[in-house]
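Priority: medium. Attachment 1 of 2:
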């Protein structure tokens, strides 16, 4: 698949109680000559039913679906963000399964990302393989003014070194989160997560690739999200992971523009 990076210039919402029905990104491999046959389509529906029913209990599921002779096999993965409830996970996966069939019609290589979950299926076996070939970057258009830029870089780097090292530990299931005070009145919040099919090494490599955008596309910005099929990293100047502090959230405001880049 051709590498595709999407960079969205976004004045981010001040609150993260995002509805699961609002997808962030979907990728349908329309460049591929592989389209879903009738049997593959049935296998996809069967696979999605399994992901919808099985993912919420543990927040993660991989599965396959094939016909009686093991031809036209489809591989699938679903994962919820590690800080959300089983109920929110279930809602998100249901929405993802429904929408991916609407936006990626007749495609046998598709993925969809929400703030709370990620779902993917393909006829190629992608399970356990690092994938940073396609991604999405969101960042706040406002620059950091509350702290010296060099100090901010150092604090941001230290926070993500900490939460990345936590996320790769098997007991944490790919999730790391934390915060640090930049000033008495400003707190930097960060979260990372990789898909739980990855090895510790591949998870760390995905994080390194994603966090690299903090010093380029997102440099000195007040918020940034870098999203790949294999991992997710984010920082904000407001609480966005659960449990939220309602006293520190605010209304959603913003302007969105985007540019698609390809090699």
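Attachment 2 of 2:
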């Amino acid at each position: 698949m051709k590498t595709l990076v999407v960079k969205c210039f976004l004045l981010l919402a001040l609150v993260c109680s995002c509805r699961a029905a609002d997808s962030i990104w979907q990728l349908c491999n329309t460049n591929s000559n592989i389209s879903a046959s009738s049997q593959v389509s049935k296998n996809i529906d069967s696979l999605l039913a399994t992901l919808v029913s099985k993912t919420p209990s543990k927040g993660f599921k991989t599965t396959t679906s094939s016909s009686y002779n093991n031809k036209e096999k489809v591989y699938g993965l679903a994962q919820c963000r590690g800080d959300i409830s089983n109920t929110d996970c279930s809602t998100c996966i249901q929405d993802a399964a429904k929408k991916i069939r609407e936006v990626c019609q007749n495609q046998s290589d598709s993925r969809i990302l929400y703030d709370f979950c990620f779902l993917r299926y393909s006829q190629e076996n992608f399970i356990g393989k690092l994938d940073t070939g396609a991604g999405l970057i969101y960042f706040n258009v406002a620059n950091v003014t509350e702290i010296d830029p060099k100090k901010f870089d150092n604090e941001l780097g230290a926070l993500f070194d900490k939460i990345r090292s936590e996320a790769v530990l098997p007991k944490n299931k790919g999730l790391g989160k934390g915060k640090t005070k930049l000033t008495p009145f400003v707190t930097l919040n960060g979260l990372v997560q990789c898909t739980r099919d990855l090895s510790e090494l591949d998870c760390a490599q995905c994080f390194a690739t994603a966090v690299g955008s903090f010093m380029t596309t997102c440099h000195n910005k007040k918020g940034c999200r870098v999203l790949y099929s294999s991992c997710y990293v984010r920082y904000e100047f407001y609480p966005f992971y659960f449990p939220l502090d309602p006293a520190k959230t605010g209304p959603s405001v913003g302007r969105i523009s985007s540019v698609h880049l390809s090699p």
